[in-house]
Amino acid sequence: MEHRHLGRSGLLISEIAYGNWITHGSQVEEEAAVACVRAAIDVGITTFDTADAYAGGRAEEVLGRALKGERRAGLEIFTKVFWPTGPGPNDRSLSRKHIMESIDASLGRLQTDYVDLYQAHRYDYSTPLEETMQAFADVVRSGKALYIGVSEWTASEIRAGWEMAQDLKIPFVSNQPQYSALWRVIEAEVVPTSIELGVGQVVFSPIAQGVLTGKYEVGKQPPAGSRATDEKSGANFISRLMRDEVLEAVAQLKPVAEQAGLSLAQLAVAWVLQNQNVSAAIIGASRPEQVRDNAAASGKKLDADVMKAIDAALDGVAERDPAKTQSPARRP
Questions:
Q1: Is the pLDDT of residue 92 over 50?
Q2: Rounded to the nearest 5°, which phi and psi values hold at 161?
Q3: Residue 54 annotated as catalytic
């Protein structure tokens, strides 16, 4: 497993991170979730990403139990704040009240004294940015988080937050966007701005929630137990990608992957990692073998012919509009 710096910071993270967005506490049972975490550790993954809102807090709890007993200094644990964690009007957003209460709740569920990275899960238009950044600064100065990041912020929002962080003298080092060969909306604006500011991308859905593995085929029912059959949450997120033209384009990648000596999943993860502004690609899994297969993409270099072939296959279906990076207009 290779490691990269998180943005321009001194923190090294595994270039493949393990995340538990819609698996732990939701799609898979705890025994399977723990087995996936153990597989991640076995292949050299040291970076683990979660959020307080995943599965109503259960994802953090499961991850905390799965990592218990590991040497804390040998791990990088990331979590996030923004989405609702309770029924009250202040159980959400990036207000000072919610941030200060949420960091303590997350640390309790994760069974740790600090997180390496605390991330704003979306931009909050209902709270002054100054209030949010001051709260993050206090979290850092209290020792409860070492670095600050954001998720799915636009280029202008990243710049505004970064500038305030400089004034507050706290390390704003990362953005966590969706990014894959099918979803390239960060390339036009977010990536150039991030390179200028020294902000690294910790990207989610590098295999487009499984679509880039080739397991979904035109005219065939999704495999039993796959994300597309998970009516609790997964099927909703993947539905926009389950179009015939997308699946047909992905099928064209099979000979490209064979040429590169990779599985389709490995090809998709390796493609993301060719972007040098990407500090890590987050993988999720419901089975340990998925972790091992995806992790094998670490360190793989794709030659120019392979990159061109991927572009040619997906050109008509890849989304590139930077306006697709959005946060809720109102408090969720």
A1: yes
A2: -65, -40
A3: yes
Residue 308's CB is within 10 A of a number of other CB atoms, namely 12
pLDDT at 23 over 80: no
Cβ of 29: how many Cβ atoms within 10 Å? 12
- pTM of structure: 0.93
Tens digit of pLDDT for each residue in 167-193? 999 999 999 999 999 999 999 999 999
What is the pLDDT at residue 28?
A: 67
d(CA 269, CA 280): 10
What is the pLDDT of the chain when averaged over all its residues? 93
Catalytic residue among 54, 118, 147, 179: 54
Q: What residues contact 3, with CB distance under 8 A and at least 6 apart? A: 12, 13, 14, 15, 46
d(CA 196, CA 194): 5
Where do the domains of the chain lie, and which CATH numbers do they carry?
3-324 (3.20.20.100)
Angle CA(125)–CA(172)–CA(330) in degrees, nearest 5? 10
Q: Using CA atoms, how far apart are residues 290 and 292, in angstroms rounded to an integer?
A: 5
Whether the Cβ atoms of residue 320 and residue 39 lie closer than 8 Å to each other: no
